[in-house]
Every structure is written in structure tokens, then in C-alpha cells.
Design goal:
286 residues, alpha/beta, Rossmann fold, Histone, subunit A, Helix Hairpins, 3 domains, 6-stranded parallel beta sheet, globular
Length: 286
């Protein structure tokens, strides 16, 4: 029996949810999400999680199935997702549909993660103090100086990602990006990748419309409920960070909305930069 994963990738707001539901219905498959934020149940609006109707049409895994207080790393996801798909194949599925926009999670599933050294806690503590006293742009600029490849591929608006890259670089004396050279792990199934893309102006219009829709659906109220948890890794996320700044009086609501749209444009650009390196992706223009 052929065992195949159909992995659907693409930038945020390109249309992955609708396309993956169509493919899941075609193959009689559930949908396995590889989105590092839609996994959290308290933040469905700001992460554009599949709707109740979507999840009634097709069973979704790794969508709204744990709390923001439960950290889920790319390494955790790799182990859990591999275990899940093996069980689903054993039940008779031949093709399983996977989709999501989290580049590191998708790569962890496909290839496995490199083994990173244990970093002394003092280094992270120092970097966290620098973040508080000097701000994220200063740390991001330091990453650009010492590891431009990581700077151009990770989400530099995410403090956790920037600090992780810096702490490995500082401790080892090697760029964080240089660790991404380990042999790919062998999987017991085929992985076929489909990439969805749109004209840039059209994609940015869709992003802006989706942000406006999030506010109509109650993003401000959702973010207010999560304000006390703003230091958690799950909430170092576009949409929430900007509203937390608005709540604390650092900017106006209009400015926060504009910042969310621009940050999401930039994130979509980084996603495409990441996936364009993968020659195995079959691209479809929507």
C-alpha cells in the first residue's frame, strides 16, 4: 500500500484551509495541521483557525487541542505528528493531508530537527534582560550582523525566535543557521509538497481584509482576555503583540491595526523566501 503525505504550504491568507479541505474530502483524509499557533484553543480569531463548520466537514488534528500554558515546540510536534500519521496509515489511509504555514514545524515533520547543544541559562537570562532594556530591534540587528541567513529566514518580530538563534550563536561561536546541516531523517512514507501562491498585491489585499474581519469577529476582546498571559511563548504572535502595546498605551488602535497588517505582509514574504529554497514543492497559482 502506498503511504503518502500531501503537504500543502504557502503564505498566510493564501487559501490553504479551503484547498486542504477540498483535498481531504477527495482522499477521505483528516487534516493534520502544522500551524504552531492554531494549536492553541484560546486564540482562534487571531490565528484564523479553521471554523467549527470546517472541523465538522473534516476532522482536524493539532487545531485548538491544547492551552497556551502548554508549550509545544517543533521537536514536540515532530514526535507527536509522526506518531499520529503512523497510526492513521495503519488504520488504512493511503493519502493523508497536512497543511500549515509554520515553516519550522513543516521541516521538523519532513526532515527532523538538528541536535542543538544545551545552552547555559545565564545566556538566555542575559538576552532576556537585553530585550527588556534595549528592545527587540537591537537584538534583531545583532542577529543580522552575526548570522544574516537566520535573520533573513526566521520571524525577526518574534522575540523567542531571535533569542533562540542568538543564544546558540553566542554559546557555540557558530551561526545558528550552520546547524541546519544534519542528515535528513528517513520516513516510512512519501511526502508530496504542494505550494499555493498568489500575486503579491492580491495576497496583501487578502491579508488586510482578513485582519479587518478578525476585528469584526472580536479580536480585541480575545486579546484582552489573554493580556495577563502576554509573556507566554504562544502569544509572541502577530496580532496579539500589537494589541498588547495598544492596551498598555504605547500606540493608538489605528496604529496597532496598521502594524498588524504590515507585520503580516512581512511574515508572508518570509514564508515565501523560506519555501522558494525547496525545489521539491509543486507550485500552484491561485
Amino acid at each position: 500500500m502506498r503511504r503518502r503525505i500531501l503537504l500543502i504550504v504557502g503564505p498566510t491568507a493564501v487559501g490553504k484551509t479551503a484547498y486542504s479541505i477540498e483535498k481531504a474530502l477527495e482522499y477521505g483524509s483528516p487534516i493534520i495541521s502544522c500551524d504552531s499557533r492554531q494549536i492553541y484553543k484560546e486564540m482562534p480569531i487571531g490565528t484564523a483557525a479553521p471554523s467549527i463548520r470546517d472541523r465538522q466537514m473534516v476532522r482536524h488534528y493539532f487545531v485548538r487541542d491544547r492551552s497556551i500554558t502548554q508549550t509545544c515546540t517543533a521537536g514536540d510536534y515532530e514526535l507527536e505528528a509522526i506518531d499520529l500519521v503512523e497510526k492513521l496509515f495503519d488504520r488504512g489511509h493511503e493519502t493523508l493531508v497536512m497543511t500549515g504555514g509554520s515553516m519550522l514545524w513543516a521541516d521538523a515533520f519532513c526532515y527532523g530537527l538538528d541536535e542543538f547543544p544545551d545552552i547555559p541559562s545565564e545566556i538566555r537570562t542575559h538576552l532576556m534582560k537585553c530585550l527588556e532594556s534595549e528592545g527587540l530591534p537591537v537584538l534583531a540587528d545583532e542577529l543580522r550582523r552575526c548570522d544574516p541567513q537566520s535573520y533573513n529566514t526566521i520571524d525577526i518580530n518574534n522575540p523567542q525566535r531571535v533569542i533562540r538563534a542568538l543564544e546558540v550563536t553566542v554559546f557555540t561561536g557558530r551561526p545558528f543557521s550552520s546547524f541546519k546541516t544534519a542528515p535528513k531523517r528517513q520516513r516510512s512514507f512519501e511526502i508530496e509538497k504542494i505550494g499555493l501562491r498568489r500575486d503579491r498585491d492580491e495576497l496583501y489585499r487578502r491579508i488586510d481584509e482578513r485582519v479587518d474581519l478578525m476585528f469584526k469577529r472580536g479580536l480585541i476582546e480575545e486579546a484582552r482576555r489573554l493580556y495577563d498571559y502576554r509573556s507566554l511563548p504562544a502569544l509572541q504572535t502577530v496580532g496579539y503583540r500589537e494589541l498588547f502595546e495598544y492596551f498598555s498605551g504605547q500606540c493608538s488602535l489605528d496604529a496597532a491595526i496598521g502594524h498588524i497588517k504590515r507585520a503580516t505582509h512581512n511574515y508572508a514574504k518570509r514564508q515565501m523566501t523560506w519555501w522558494k529554497r525547496d525545489s521539491s514543492i509543486q507550485w500552484i497559482d491561485l
